[in-house]
Design a protein that fits this description.
Elements: H1 3-20, H2 26-45, H3 51-86, H4 97-125, H5 131-156, H6 161-187
């Protein structure tokens, strides 16, 4: 079973739990179960486990999982906000927009942390620093810079968390795109 298949199965598990378990804590339950299922699927798939590659693929998969979950949560949140703006208050359960944006912001921060751990474990597996690894390090540094600026802006300069979450989300997709396109361009 490939790495992408394992991540996809975990994302599907997240969607299934999120759809059928419609409680206030369904995000946390589905997040923990899907992350645990990814780790379990990975460990059951590979019989020979070496520490560094295992850590590298686990944190890379978890970063993808967290980013996809944050993407879904942003879509759910934007749909609810749009319904409120249109005046459709009957079908909306009470929720705090600001609190949900903060939760998504934390999810993206965790995804960035896992992505950084993937970079560190990838760097430690390589003895030669190739252009591929240097590009990944630069893009991860840029994403961390955006994250820190956004956190400081939200905390000290009254930057709306909604825009901070959106900008960090775009930065995370740019980093992931750079990771995959960099491997494709350098590999060809």
């Amino acid at each position: 079973m490939s790495f992408i298949t394992q991540v996809t199965i975990s994302i599907v598990i997240y969607f299934i739990i999120r759809f059928f378990y419609q409680k206030e804590r369904s995000l946390y339950v589905s997040l923990y179960v899907s992350a645990f299922s990814y780790i379990l699927i990975y460990l059951l798939t590979y019989e020979v486990i070496t520490i560094l590659p295992t850590i590298h693929f686990m944190v890379t998969g978890l970063s993808l999982l967290f980013i996809f979950i944050a993407y879904n949560e942003i879509l759910i949140l934007e749909r609810k906000v749009r319904k409120i703006k249109l005046g459709d208050l009957a079908s909306i359960e009470p929720f705090s927009i600001e609190r949900n944006y903060k939760i998504v912001f934390k999810l993206l921060g965790m995804g960035l942390l896992f992505l950084s751990l993937a970079l560190i474990s990838g760097l430690s597996m390589q003895s030669i620093f190739t252009a591929n690894l240097i590009f990944k390090a630069v893009f991860t540094f840029i994403a961390w810079l955006i994250f820190v600026i956004t956190v400081l802006g939200v905390k000290y300069f009254n930057f709306p968390i909604k825009y901070g979450t959106r900008s960090l989300f775009i930065a995370m997709w740019a980093v992931l795109g750079a990771y995959f396109m960099n491997s494709y361009i350098i590999g060809s």
